[in-house]
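Purpose: get a first structural picture of the assembly so the mutagenesis plan has something to point at.
Setup: two entries, given in the order below. No constraints added.
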Amino acid sequence: MTQRMKLEVVDRRDFLVGATAASALATLLAMHGTAFAQEKPPTFQETLDKILGGKKAEEAKITIELPEIAENGNTVPYTVTVDNPMTDADYVKSLHILSSGNPSPNIASYYFSPLAGQAFASSRMRLAKTQDIYAVAELSNGNFLVGKRTVKVTIGGCGG
Amino acid sequence: MSNKPRIKVPATNKVGDVIEVKTLISHVMETGFRKGSDGNLVPRNIINTFTATFGGKEVVKVDLSSGVSANPYISFKFKVPGPGDLELTWIDDSGAKTVEKVAIAVG
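Result (structure tokens, whole complex):
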């Protein structure tokens, strides 16, 4: 009797392990095929052009901190700072973090007020593959700044 | 958005200090690009907006996209104008709203 009960427990566990692995595999396979098949999000270039609105961005004053190599694309820490006094007369209005190689180029857009004291953005992003990360800042005087940083991704963060 | 978000601010501050406010909230941040086990796309459900206000004035607003990791960690800087409450709001695609207040002590 005891013997039989034990066997049953083992059987069920085996079954569960198998089922979980199978469903994880199915998810992975599904992701690859469909990520680009549905309604197309705007491309990176379209998104960048829309933010800039025809203006030129100066490549300066933005620091992007990212790991050189991200082992897990699901959670890549980043910190972006803009060298700016953040006074009522001169502050960073918005800061856009963009990815050039994700299914959707937007990561996050920050809108600051002078109360923030520093144009600083720190969070964690998903990265599908090795790519360039851009940070575009709009200043209160209407000028744009841009920064760029390449990050190598070992395992993509979009399941594929 | 069930769990209470975690918020960290310095314990003591002086007027004019630029402090870092760190926040962490539990959320699946479903991208809408992923298929579920039934073969259908899992509908997008992400926290799309985060705002921080102090005394009714906006300090920072963040529009998040599907490129933000699950359980989003958001940190920002804040120049302390005086004592008061910093009000933080997270809103997700389902309309669920989480509001937390954190006291900024000055002294």
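The beta strands of chain B are 6-8, 18-24, 47-54, 57-64, 73-79, 84-92, 97-104.
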